[in-house]
Amino acid sequence: MTAYAMGELEPTPFDERVAPTYDAGSAHMFEPAVLGPTVDVLHEIAGAGPALELAIGTGRVALPLAARRVEVHGIDVSEAMVRELRRKPGGDRLPGVIGDMATTRVGSGYRLAYLVYNTITNLLTQDEQVECFCTVAAQLAPGGAFVVEVFVPQLRRMPPGQTAVPFHVGGRHVGFDTIDVVTQRSVSHHDVRAGVREDDDGREVATYSASAHRYVWPSELDLMARIAGLTLRDRWADWTRAPFTADSESHVSVWTKAAS
């Protein structure tokens, strides 16, 4: 295991322009009602650990999980996001690597690997998403679990001709997706007015960012898991373990590796 090593990687949408205000723009995801159940479920599945977080980012989940004495390792493609993690108390003690989560191996024998907050969709092709499952499965201990939190595409909201769907509207953040149903590609647009500078007139200046995604259906993820040798164990609508139904807008799914 090595410390986060800065390398020559392709630019990511989570760069120096986005990373410093990322937490502010995602403040709703830090709310105790959201983060608490997330960490509770992951802590229970990890047991004695260790755990691997793909796309560890600024440590929203990794830091509170590590505070519960779970050994957490991380991987992220964005050096800028990891720098924000390092600035936080305890962030410099989380080992991991800078790399592509579809192909980079961090270690082995993990009781838990997890990928939260829709980040599986940052992999922009089906092949990359399948490869991610295979890479994770190779690093899991026998009986280990891979947990993914991701939205369910809300195409039923879209009448013919509509290409945009909002996913969060708040006082400090507005987000919406523009969607191509043929390629399963979408672009998430974020307008953030939190933790940013003021102009000469004292008015708050907004920041805009956008990121590309490939949305993926639950059944498609199950097939990816099977290709990687994993079996679906649980699927909930959210981290409270509410039942997953036809009306669920997201899911938390748990796939496991054979115990022997």
Report on the structure:
Helix content is 23%, strand content 29%. By secondary structure, it is an alpha/beta fold. It folds into two domains: 19-153 and 216-257, Vaccinia Virus protein VP39 (Rossmann fold); 155-212. Strands 3-2-1-4-5-11-10 form a seven-stranded mixed sheet, with helices on both faces. The longest helix is centred in the first third of the chain and has 15 residues, at 32-46. The relative contact order is 0.15. Residues 1-11 have low confidence and may be disordered.
Task: Write a concise keyword list for the protein shown above.
single chain, 260 residues, alpha/beta, Rossmann fold, 2 domains, seven-stranded mixed sheet, four-stranded antiparallel sheet, 6 helices, 23% helix
Describe what is shown at a glance.
With 260 residues, the chain is of the alpha/beta class.
Strand content: 25-35%
**Envelope shape:** globular
* Helix residue percentage: 10-25%
The CATH C-level name of the largest domain is Alpha Beta
Question: Could you tell me the number of beta strands?
Answer: 11
Indicate the structural class: alpha/beta
Task: Tally the helices.
Answer: 6
User: What composes the largest sheet?
Assistant: 7 strands, mixed
Distance separating the two termini: 25 Å
* The CATH topology of the largest domain: Rossmann fold
